[in-house]
Amino acid sequence: MKKTTIFFTLFLLILSCTAISAQAKYEKEKAEISAMLDGFNIAAAKADFNTYFNYFAEESTFIGTDATEIWDKKAFMNWAKPYFDKKKTWNFTSVKRNIYFSKDGKLAWFDELLDTQMKICRGSGVLEKINGQWKVKQYVLSVTVPNEVVDKVVEVKAPIEDILIKEMSTKE
């Protein structure tokens, strides 16, 4: 009985140390990703084109707030360049951020609420660790709409998006 108790206690001790070690690793990774996302937002606010786009993986996608805004990195760079050149970019500050990891730790995804010129927005995305650095593989920017005013928002956007829905549904 004593041997079983000792063995079980040692097993639990080893298991808890392993779990603490994994948790500590992810806490370090979360801090690294959080700093990266803050730098990403700061680079945009400072209109630092090269720094901002270096946060993106070569094969990446940016999905904007408009239904027509889905770009690969090169197309997004082309779209954004005039704004960066004129120093008329966006200034987002994270208010609340969640970060999650794949089991193997090679991928992470996040969602965050952002304080922006459009008021609260949601940024979300997928990150991949490439050559020791976390890179944006996909970024999605969404405008949040309080439930109390969603009917008013739909009323305003319906005439525009009804046309868009018709155009998109007739394309192959």
From TrEMBL:
InterPro entries: NTF2-like_dom_sf, SnoaL-like. Keywords: Signal. Residues 33-145 form the SnoaL-like domain. It comes from Chryseobacterium profundimaris. Residues 1-24 form the signal peptide. SUPFAM superfamilies: NTF2-like. It holds the Pfam family SnoaL_3. Transmembrane segments: none annotated. This is SnoaL-like domain-containing protein.
